[in-house]
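Need residues for this backbone.
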């Protein structure tokens, strides 16, 4: 039997059962089932007696004799099967509503059974519905395993003879017949971390002899999972470095130096300097740079991007910057134009809202190499923009931008451009290593001097009058305020309704013409959006009511208050990002998190985190812990987090160790001599490495 064999090769699995396994568990091969681990175990030695049962919903193991088997017809095509289980201390009624025919054939009066399931009280007595059962004699003949695996099963599986006991039996036979399971982990690494072999680990995951054995099996499987994840990333990276040549940016020239000496409006922070140095080092190796730039909101990532782009221009290349939204792209464009004023660098903005004629003109100038710095949305990738010599791409991202998407940039240049990815908000270290494992990481861990932390408070519906009073005061002092409503993608209609109700409420408390509003949301045409933003920026309006479109990038130094409605509905990182929109002018700024009056414990904890820290990395960690990776914005689509045993939250040390080990392995043994199972793993994954247009 081979791991890749179809599930039908397994003893006890015919075509019918194989179909059910495939449909219900996505289990198709022997290996799939081998890696379908129990979610818990029953300690067999902890057998319960019926007299001592309690109604706490626990899974119990009973031994007893079956009697009084009955079938009652309950409808046209439905019937119920009941029997009594007696263990000498009391009795439990066992009940089946489905699959009764099969049960009827198996159950015999007067015979001892091992019965497992959850007991409940029904009509004054104990009852167990759809329990698992096995003849005691057979169960004992199977050997005394101290822990019984419990697998997640579905009703359809149970009806088809694939309950947790049946799965255990199939798995046990399989595990016994697997003499040798290749181990992808190199010997040295296993020794170094004292990891058990793959075969032993797999057996113990299903049939542990002790808790200690189970623990070491788990540790081994976690390590393996994270090791292979890192391996896939880093191996692909190594291949890319061999296959892909990139421009060598050997010099720091006129543009960079002149900007540094004459144009820089303030001294760089130490962190900015360090990161620029890292980027410069990367870009002069001849290998393609693939770097992730992380930094808190307001840490000055834009400036780092700009100066990196100047390096490209100094070396005769073009550079482009891609932003997640048009608003942000235009804002970057404005910033760049202002900063590069008088430097004779041609910067252009290419967005969907341009007229066709203008677009064509920019495209042509870009193809000829006349445009040195092109700014646009992520659509730049999809659109047929040709560069004359693209040397650096900066991706200012909101959602995860996959390897495949990045590799599309290849087609735009004969030599692969260097790539710098900037995250919109900080992400925790483990997550960065897991999600962006193929990127090197630079962190700006220092904010420009003189920032006063935004004062953040939690207010409830009941405090609304007080909040509005405060707003009026701030506006009277010439300040501007944001009011943000959540946008939840499932129902844009309800969102819009929320926003509209909010606007009406605001208009009631803040009547025109004394107060002026800018209203911005996703459904507005881009030019209206831009106009509303522009008015707010110029100070013609006092209040900006918006959905989260303002999340990325708006820069209005005079805005000092950010009110976030239904704050409990936002992710922490999103809240943090929004909060970063105020306090940019150096004055004291406020963030008011409005929520309904009653909150869940988790929501309370999250709001409390927001009020107590302004450190984006800490907030990201808290978000990950409180919500789990599945809920974090932009991560749902990424397959990387479908981990079977490891946890991105709890296993940070293993992630770090595995990453390090993979790096060393590939450095010392790039051809993977003696690592046949790993080579096999690569061959199996081959298709995945074929992304992009590397030839
Ligand atoms: P983010 O990292 O969130 O993209 P930005 O690049 O938008 O941050 O920078 C936030 C603000 O800080 C901008 O107004 C920018 O001009 C300013 N800034 C950037 N670097 C420095 C610095 N070294 N000293 C002072 N202000 C800076
Ligand atoms: Mg930014």
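Answer:
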């Amino acid at each position: 039997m081979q791991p890749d064999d179809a599930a039908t090769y397994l003893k006890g699995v015919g075509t019918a059962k194989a179909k059910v396994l495939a449909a219900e568990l996505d289990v198709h091969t022997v290996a799939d089932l081998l890696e379908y681990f129990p979610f818990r175990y029953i300690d067999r030695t902890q057998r319960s007696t019926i007299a001592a049962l309690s109604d706490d919903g626990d899974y119990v193991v009973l031994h007893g004799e079956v009697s009084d088997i009955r079938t009652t017809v309950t409808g046209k095509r439905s019937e119920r099967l009941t029997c009594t289980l007696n263990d000498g201390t009391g009795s439990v009624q066992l009940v089946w509503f489905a699959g009764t025919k099969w049960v009827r054939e198996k159950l015999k009066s007067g015979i001892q059974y091992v019965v497992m399931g959850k007991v409940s009280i029904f009509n004054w007595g104990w009852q167990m519905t759809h329990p698992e059962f096995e003849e005691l004699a057979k169960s004992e003949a199977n050997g005394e395993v101290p822990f019984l695996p419990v697998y997640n099963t579905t009703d359809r599986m149970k009806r088809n003879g694939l309950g947790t006991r049946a799965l255990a039996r199939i798995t046990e036979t399989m595990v016994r017949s697997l003499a040798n399971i290749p181990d992808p982990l190199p010997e040295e690494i296993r020794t170094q971390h004292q990891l058990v072999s793959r075969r032993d680990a797999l057996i113990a995951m299903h049939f542990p002899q002790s808790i200690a054995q189970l623990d070491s099996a788990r540790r081994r499987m976690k390590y393996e999972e994270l090791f292979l994840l890192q391996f896939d990333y880093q191996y692909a990276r190594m291949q890319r470095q061999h296959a892909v040549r990139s421009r060598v940016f050997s010099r720091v020239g006129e543009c960079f130096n002149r900007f540094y000496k004459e144009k820089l409006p303030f001294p760089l922070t130490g962190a900015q300097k360090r990161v620029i140095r890292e980027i410069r080092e990367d870009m002069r190796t001849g290998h393609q740079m693939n770097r992730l730039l992380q930094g808190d909101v307001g840490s000055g990532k834009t400036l780092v991007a700009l100066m990196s782009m100047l390096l490209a221009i100094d070396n005769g290349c073009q550079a482009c910057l891609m932003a997640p939204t048009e608003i942000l792209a235009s804002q970057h464009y404005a910033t760049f134009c202002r900063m590069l004023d008088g430097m004779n660098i041609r910067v252009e903005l290419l967005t969907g809202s341009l007229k066709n004629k203008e677009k064509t003109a920019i495209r042509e100038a870009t193809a000829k190499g006349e445009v040195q710095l092109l700014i646009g949305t992520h659509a730049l990738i999809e659109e047929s923009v040709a560069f004359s010599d693209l040397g650096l791409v900066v991706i200012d991202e909101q959602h995860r931008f996959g390897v495949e998407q990045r590799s599309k940039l290849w087609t735009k240049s004969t030599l692969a451009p260097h790539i710098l990815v900037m995250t919109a908000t900080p992400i925790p270290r483990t997550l960065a290593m897991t999600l962006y494992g193929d990127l090197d990481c630079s962190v700006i861990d220092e904010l420009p001097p003189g920032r006063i932390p935004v004062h953040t408070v939690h207010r409830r519906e009941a405090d609304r009058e007080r909040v509005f009073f405060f707003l009026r005061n701030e506006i009277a002092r010439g300040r501007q305020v944001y009011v943000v409503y959540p946008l939840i993608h499932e129902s844009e209609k309800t969102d819009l309704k929320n926003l509209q109700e909010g606007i009406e409420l605001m208009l009631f408390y803040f009547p025109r013409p004394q107060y002026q509003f800018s209203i911005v949301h996703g459904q507005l045409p881009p030019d209206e959006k831009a106009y509303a933003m522009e008015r707010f920026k110029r100070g013609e309006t006092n209040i900006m009511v918006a959905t989260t479109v303002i999340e990325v990038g708006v820069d209005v130094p005079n805005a000092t208050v950010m009110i976030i409605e239904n704050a409990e509905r936002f992710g922490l990182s999103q809240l943090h990002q929004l909060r970063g929109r105020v306090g940019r002018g150096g004055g004291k700024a406020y963030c008011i998190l409005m929520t309904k009056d009653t909150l869940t414990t988790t929501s309370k904890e999250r709001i409390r985190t927001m009020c107590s820290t302004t450190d984006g990395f800490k907030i990201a960690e808290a978000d990950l812990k409180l919500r789990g990776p599945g809920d974090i914005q932009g991560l749902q689509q990424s397959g990387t987090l479908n981990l079977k045993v490891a946890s991105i939250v709890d296993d940070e040390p293993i992630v770090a160790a595995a990453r390090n080990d993979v790096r060393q392995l590939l450095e010392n043994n790039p051809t993977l001599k003696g690592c046949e199972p790993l080579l096999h793993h690569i061959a199996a994954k081959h298709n995945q490495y074929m992304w992009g247009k590397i030839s």
